[in-house]
Prior knowledge:
The protein is an alpha/beta fold and about 375 residues long.
Amino acid sequence: MTWMRIAEGALKTPELVFQHRFRHTFDGMPLEARRLSRRKRLNLLRCGCDAAMRRSSMSCRPPALQIEPSSLCPLRCPLCPSGTGQMKRKPGLMSMTTFERILSVFGEDLVTAVFYCWGEPFSNPLLPDMIAMSTQRGIATVTSTNGQFIQTADEAERVVTSGLQALVIAVDGATQDVYERYRVGGDLARVKNCVKRLASAKSSSASPTPFLNVRMVVTNENEHQIGDVRGLAADLGADMFSIKTVGRLTGECDFGRFDHASDQYRREPDPSAPPVHCPFPFRQPTVFHDGTVVGCEFDSSPDMPLGNVATDDAESIWNGAAAIALRRKILHPVERPAFCGLCPYRGVPGSTTVLKCEPIGRN
């Protein structure tokens, strides 16, 4: 919903107003927020008006949040600030107290919660409980995993019964030697087991969710295994196979080693292209594990915090001086923040880094 155009959002207005639901896709995966309160419906309409009028001071509250359950990760992916140890802030897990405060500050207006940022979300054992609390509030939820967790039937059942609607599982190779070239320290056998456990738990409970999306980040070193990973996704019981381009997630990394795939799969932002009209500080801010709120996940250190849910209310965070200043920089880009230099969307057609989403049929 973040990148949804105004015209596309307008077409959803009848369903929003009369059926009290909001359906959209997230990287090709279906999400649906049901039984939306009058407040949430009005907030979505205000959000559309704010977008149309290009406001820096918002009349709406954020309808979506990106939430970081954990900034810790057992892997050492070479292009990630968490995996390379380049993140300057203290790593940790989000506490339930912090999450409850997020719901207290923003929950009355939330339609979608994206439960991942830097780190592995399921390294926080409280994540299924956080998702369940969101589900109870009618919030559509999506998260992502490297597949090193969720190894038992009980763990998979917790995820399924939480109401999680969509889950991306990173599978960047069909053999261990290729897979671990990017997912350094990862075990492909554990990833396979993770997907199979989740598919089995869905089947046992006759649940259509979570929608399981096996995703491959295509690099110079694994491109030859695209077909094999596609087949693996089908064999494991996934609902979708998708391809994502590799991106520079930190300023200091050996990016060239990976960004040599064929032109079909390369992400080649045009440096001469104008900056994208970034939607994140306008509709989907990020809350780090310690409660710090930023306008964009790429402000990972951070340099321009908007506030903290532990000490600030929604108005002071969302319409405070820092938030308004950031939006003005986005709307009138004379000098954008330094973290915008890592933006994966600039000059990318369709403002997406996901190139292909293939639903997997079931007999």
